[in-house]
Amino acid sequence: MSKDNSPISAREAKRLFAGLKGAQGLLLAVSGGPDSVALMWLAARWHRSLARGPRLTVVTIDHGLRPEAAREAREVKRLATGLGLPHRTVRWRGAKPKTGLPAAAREARYRLLVQAARVAGASHVLTAHTRDDQAETLLMRLVRGSGLAGLSAMARLTERDGVVLARPLLDVPKSQLIATLKRAKIGFADDPTNHDAAFTRPRLRALLPQLAAEGGDARSLARLAARLARANAAVEVLTDGAERFLRLRDRGDAPQAGVRSFEAPVFAALPDEVRLRILLRAINAFGHEGPAELGKVESLLAVLDQAIAARPRAPANGRPALKQTLAGALISLAGGRIRIAPAPARRKS
After folding, report:
1. What's the pLDDT at 348?
2. CB atoms < 10 A from the CB of 186, how many?
3. Is 138's pLDDT higher than 80?
4. How do residues 96-111 score in pLDDT, each as one tens digit?
5. Which string of DSSP letters, residue by residue, matches 141-195?
6. Could you tell me which of 120, 6, 131 has the C-alpha nearest to residue 59?
7. Is the pLDDT reported for residue 116 higher than 90?
8. Domains of the chain and CATH, by start
């Protein structure tokens, strides 16, 4: 039996959860599917081996999209109770969108999980994303033309509203989790939407066997995502340094509150990827219409470059060489400086 099809041992589980031993509390997101049920069972076994560890709480999010969801939540509660873990079900209430349902459900799920973590006094939310999920996420973002940050796929640890989102199973194949449950004789639910070709992820999932035959299996794709994440982290450090450099150049000028401003010629000399990130950070910091789309920022950078090349040192009191809004931020070029500030609120029609 290959390692990918063998149950996870107690020793392996200890390694998977080792970094979480000092957490204030862990909230386990358990839907009833094999991955999350395995997460709950492994976490409970690990917790029992500790002399003292963080409190575990199990939460199931019922999106209200399938009639079977309530029954699955009750089954999770039964399993959690058998493991000595407290459980509660949280429902996504209100109208559901007719388009973009998977993204809306995902956003609602994380919002509700963070709220539940606060109620439970948990510092971390644990989700059961696997190596297979990582490979699928990379493929989804690849076909959408994501940038380097998007192609890094899912991080092991992220933060949302003061709560840490942890994915301890990100290097574990789904087959190993199923083998673990079979060995423990624990049942699990099968969400039919995971096989519904109306959604992008299941369609891409169906292609994985063909990719694997060419050497592009989940292990290879997840490894690629990890390498891209490493490169992305390096570019983030370079961007931090470039922002500090731009601020140092402005030491003689008093900074304006609510405005990001820097010398256009100096900005133009920086690498394109770094400049894109500087613009993205500033627009997202001062804009009031949500995160800016990478493609639109790329178009903005091209227009900025043309304007800088045409009027590199225009008089400070002259007409702006460029003035446009993006994601609720106002970007202008005047007097040899790029200025990013909140855009005026749109007039209500």
Report:
1. 64
2. 16
3. yes
4. 888 888 889 999 999 9
5. HHHTT--HHHHT---SEEEETTEEEE-TTTTS-HHHHHHHHHHHT------GGGG
6. 120
7. yes
8. 3-228 (3.40.50.620), 256-342 (3.30.465)
